[in-house]
Amino acid sequence: MRIIKLGLTILVSTVLLFALSACGQNDIQKVRVGEVTHSIFYAPQYVALSQGFFEDEGLEIVLQGTFGGDKTMTALLSDGIDIALVGSETSIYVYAQGTTDPVINFAQLTQTDGTFLVSREKVENFTWDQLKGSTFLGQRKGGMPQMVGEFVLKKHGIDPHNDLNLIQNIEFANIASAFGSGTGDYVQLFEPTASVFEQEGKGHIVASFGEESGHVPYTTFMTKQSYLNDNKEIVEKFTRAIYKAQQWVESHSAQEIAEAIQPFFEDTDVALIETVVNRYKEQGSYATNPILDEDEWNNLQDIMREAGELPVEVDHSVLVETKLIEEIISE
């Protein structure tokens, strides 16, 4: 009789264990995230993944590359992804087209430009006016790197279309290789390419566009208004995980961050990752919380307007969600 009771106890325990396990699996919510490019610039996102912050919130993140602002927005608007990590200017472009389901910025990840000015020749005591008359390999027209680049050049009294031989007809993915093969005297590059070129003697970092342009919502998590309305809990959990990661990045060294995100950059030496992370940390590129404030939003539109790329002025309250984040921070 005791054997039968023991057997029944084991059976019931096993059934309960499987039931609880199945329940736990059903509680996991899958979120498809499209990143405009794969970059160390987005370190807090990879920290959230590596440290299990999304998992703690019951989220399974399916991360995919969408490679370019236009393609990222297409994927979001067609429901190919749930959340996009891309420049905030794209939400303004979509809004200007008269959409009935606008794209809402809900969590800022980076708060400065992430590009650097790289010179082919070593320049002692660099000043921006040294660019005049040079061949400048710029970024794609209409994108944030190009708009910030022109904003900074004009800030230093340089007309990019008259004072430079400006090249903008090269695809984003090919800009670095074009400079490496001999095109241009100066180039605007993201990390880690800028540091790799410096290590290999192919170029020299002489200035930071991020330091020069001030705070701007350079890369933000955004989603459609309809998704935000229907999945508020998921967006809250997602934002909470990002906030934890931002705080983790703020309180840890560049070396610790590099080691945490290295699995996402297997082909990049951890020492190089550390160099890049340190450079971004020192210039305050990583936002310390997800709030996209009104000053940053207005700075973005000033940069777009200066570049002739602002289709319509949009109030901060129309395309930016802040109440949700404020509640999370106050928890």
From TrEMBL:
Its main location: periplasm. SUPFAM superfamilies: Periplasmic binding protein-like II. Coiled coil: none annotated. Keywords: Signal. Residues 1-24 form the signal peptide. Belongs to the bacterial solute-binding protein SsuA/TauA family. This is ABC transporter substrate-binding protein. It comes from Bacillus salitolerans.
